[in-house]
Write a structure and sequence with these properties.
alpha+beta; single chain; 187 residues; Transferase(Phosphotransferase), domain 1; 5-stranded antiparallel sheet
Length: 187
């Protein structure tokens, strides 16, 4: 757990509506770089509850941890610590050097080669295919949530708005009929 792991926060690398993301270093054995996402929920958690976005991201990342897909950022640890009447939720994730925006800003004026574009897109689509096969819809895919390592590895990150869908999604009769009918059936 995060409490048994000694982690040094090195720098803040991002901020969202529910907390901050830090670049960190694990002390001891591996001394690897990590990303630490700290959600700070202020307010009385016993009265209001924990915001759904915090619970959703932690639960979804824990579920995906067991699949270990190369194009999904890896969750290494989760901890929830009571802080008075509020809670601090921390996700410890693998560290990836940059997001897609930063990666693209470093591309030479001549642009990326066709092979580089094809490789990036294949990795992104493999990650999306994995999510959709497991009934997960990301719902916030943008350059800041697509990470690219210095070795060109693409990882989808930030699952705060993601949803898990099941096959029993209710469709309105008009929608299900429109999908089931062949073109030209409505003459």
């Amino acid at each position: 757990s995060a409490t048994s792991r000694l982690i040094w926060l090195l720098a803040e690398i991002g901020e969202g509506s529910y907390g901050k993301v830090y670049k960190a270093r694990e002390e001891g054995g591996k001394q690897r770089l990590l990303a630490v996402k700290k959600f700070n929920f202020r307010g009385d958690a016993s009265q209001v509850g924990i915001p759904a976005v915090m619970v959703r991201e932690a639960a979804l990342m824990r579920k995906m941890k067991y699949f270990n897909h190369p194009n999904i950022v890896k969750l290494l640890d989760v901890s929830v610590v009571p802080a008075g009447r509020s809670l601090d939720l921390t996700l410890v994730l693998e560290y990836v050097d940059q997001d897609l925006s930063t990666y693209l800003s470093k591309v030479p004026a001549s642009g990326l080669s066709r092979d580089a574009i094809k490789d990036l897109m294949q990795q992104l689509l493999r990650g999306l295919d994995f999510l959709h096969t497991n009934l997960v819809v990301h719902r916030d895919l943008k350059p800041e949530n697509i990470l690219v390592s210095s070795h060109g590895e693409v990882k989808i990150a930030d699952f705060g708005l993601a949803r898990i869908y099941s096959f029993n999604i209710a469709l309105t009769p008009g929608v299900s009929e429109a999908v089931a009918d062949a073109p030209g059936d409505h003459l």
